[in-house]
Design goal:
- It is found in: Cell outer membrane.
- It comes from Acinetobacter lanii.
- One of its GO terms (molecular function) is porin activity.
- The chain starts with a helix and ends with a strand.
- It is built from 13 helices and 8 strands.
- Helix 11 (387-452) runs antiparallel to helix 12 (458-493).
- It has a 4-stranded antiparallel beta sheet with strand order 2-3-6-7. A two-stranded parallel ribbon has the order 1-4. Strands 5-8 form a two-stranded antiparallel sheet.
- The protein has 2 domains: 50-92 and 185-511, Outer membrane efflux proteins (OEP) (Up-down Bundle), CATH 1.20.1600; 102-175, no CATH class.
- The protein has helices at 2-17, 27-44, 58-68, 70-88, 115-135, 140-158, 189-255, 261-295, 318-328, 330-351, 387-452, 458-493, 499-503; strands at 54-56, 96-113, 164-185, 301-304, 308-311, 356-364, 371-378, 508-511.
- It is of the alpha+beta class.
């Protein structure tokens, strides 16, 4: 395209140099106008002159965005994280085994009362001694004094012990143990946690698909907007060159006395307006290419190989689109998954109201080998949280999710219906525009001949030229409208990944 533009500019320059006006005073403004137009064309072509310029098709651009964009990489990471989280909870509910090591030191100081101990000791010793004396069969006048004397001696000796004693216990212990805790009944909390993790993993996959569809839509908008701006730039350039030619011819006719200065100035005003429109088209083209390069994380894309297009006939029926979009739309699937999450949350909140039953055991790994096993039943009587209300809140969230899903279906159906009609309208408009362009080309030829024969006015020629250029721009705009309406229709239906199939259909008109 750049070579064609440069070649065209060179041809115009040669035609001007060979004209018989090259030495006349009226040729000076014409030279300046050609120079101004040529510089504008060269400046606009600077966007095509990058040393490492690239040409990219829509299919290549789509593949690049889906594989390398920041959004794609972020969603892939989130999807992997959700799947890993679901895998991590697969073993939830199995016995939990812990290796414990307790290292501790203790100090304990206790005051022990000895009164009772002293009395029991004195009584026991006295009874034992008396029994031994009785076994000797001593006369009572001997045995009784002996018992009294020994009893007094014991009482005096035991009285030497204090009435209380302060005992201090200190030790340092390292005790390894193995403990096992196994839930026997949790009221459904374990199953609910697993279900929520699985649903979130599937929802993450749907979210990735939805983001890919959004990226496809953004790429369609950016890629074909750049194509539209190229077509508008080409149309403005064609119009500017045509107006330059008309102005050139008007100068000749003015010098030959066939038209007056006012008529020639009408062409000059039209030429200036065409140059101004070309400047605006050039700025819009550069902006659209910058946006596309930014989306593709590049700075070297200057040419697009996939043109604007319009399919001649509709490939799908409206009723079929309205019937099966629920099976295709990732948005609807994701919202249905939200309802499943809300339902799993209801079960989890209900499980919090039920008792829990756990089996436990612990075995000491030291030389003492102590162990303990048992069962724990736990039922919360009061925690400050009204569990009935939390269950009601979860049920309302599920109900709201169901209602929002139905409302979203209504909105999608409206978009499908509107987009389908816009696609059909653009197809009909394209057929009419093709006929109008043919008529506008013939009308311009007739007005040029009429003006040369002094049977028409400059205004008629200018209007005919502007009409032809406007129809070419309108055809490009209509094609862009068709492309975006088709993209909106496919995205709402959930089949925007099939967009590139519409580009290569046999019944397709390309806007080049």
């Amino acid at each position: 395209m750049a070579r064609q533009f440069i070649t065209l500019f060179k041809i115009k320059s040669v035609e001007f140099n060979r004209s018989d006006l090259s030495n006349s005073s009226s040729a000076r403004p014409l030279k300046a106008s050609f120079l101004k137009l040529g510089l504008l064309i060269i400046f606009s072509l600077s966007i095509f002159s990058v040393s490492h310029a690239e040409t990219i098709s829509f299919v290549q651009a789509e593949q690049h965005v889906l594989n390398n964009s920041y959004t794609s990489q972020a969603n892939q990471a989130l999807q992997q994280a959700a799947q890993l989280q679901a895998d991590a909870l697969k073993g939830l509910g199995l016995p939990r085994v812990d290796l414990n090591v307790r290292a501790y030191a203790f100090h304990n100081e206790v005051d022990l009362p000895l009164d009772g101990f002293k009395k029991n000791l004195e009584s026991s010793l006295s009874q034992s001694i008396n029994d031994r004396i009785n076994e000797q069969n001593l006369p009572s006048n001997v045995a009784d004094p002996l018992k009294d004397g020994i009893g007094q001696t014991l009482h005096s000796g035991i009285g030497l012990f204090p009435d209380s004693s302060n005992v201090i216990l200190e030790d340092q212990v390292i005790r390894p143990t193995v403990s096992v805790l196994m839930p026997l009944y949790t009221g459904g909390a374990t199953r609910s946690a697993k279900d929520i993790a699985k649903i979130e993993a599937k929802r993450s996959q749907l979210n990735t698909q939805q983001q890919q569809d959004v990226q496809r839509f953004e790429l369609i908008q950016a890629y074909f907007n750049a194509q539209l701006q190229q077509q508008l730039f080409a149309s403005s350039q064609f119009n500017a060159q045509a107006m330059q030619t008309h102005y050139h011819n008007a100068l000749k006719l003015e010098q030959q006395g066939f038209i007056n200065k006012g008529q020639r100035m009408q062409f000059e005003v039209a030429k200036n307006n065409a140059e101004r429109a070309l400047q605006n088209a050039d700025a819009n083209l550069r902006s659209s290419l910058f946006s596309l390069n930014n989306l593709l994380q590049s700075s070297q894309i200057t040419a697009l190989s996939t043109p604007l297009f319009i399919n001649s006939v509709q490939n799908q029926h409206l009723n079929d689109l309205l019937k099966n979009y629920q099976d295709q739309s990732t948005l609807i699937k994701k919202m249905q998954m939200d309802t499943q999450l809300a339902n799993a949350n209801v079960k989890a909140q209900s499980a919090a109201k039920k008792p829990n039953l756990f089996a436990f055991g612990e075995y000491s790994l030291d030389d003492k080998q102590n162990w303990i096993v048992g069962v724990v039943a736990r039922y919360n009587l009061f925690s400050g949280i009204d569990k009935n209300k939390t269950v009601q809140a979860a049920e309302l969230q599920r109900y709201a999710s169901e209602l929002l899903t139905e409302r979203t279906k209504q909105e999608i159906e409206n978009i499908i219906y509107k987009s389908y009609n816009e696609v059909s309208t653009a197809q009909l408009s394209h057929q009419l525009l093709q006929k109008n362009i043919q008529a506008a080309q013939e009308n311009l030829r007739i007005q040029q001949l009429s003006f040369k024969e002094d049977m028409g006015t400059a205004t008629q020629v200018i209007d005919a030229q502007n009409t032809l250029s406007g129809l070419k721009s309108e055809m490009a705009l209509n094609a862009y409208k068709y492309v975006m309406s088709l993209a909106t229709l496919l995205q709402s239906h959930g089949s925007i990944d099939q967009f590139q199939q519409y580009i290569t259909q046999s019944n397709t008109d390309y806007i080049r």
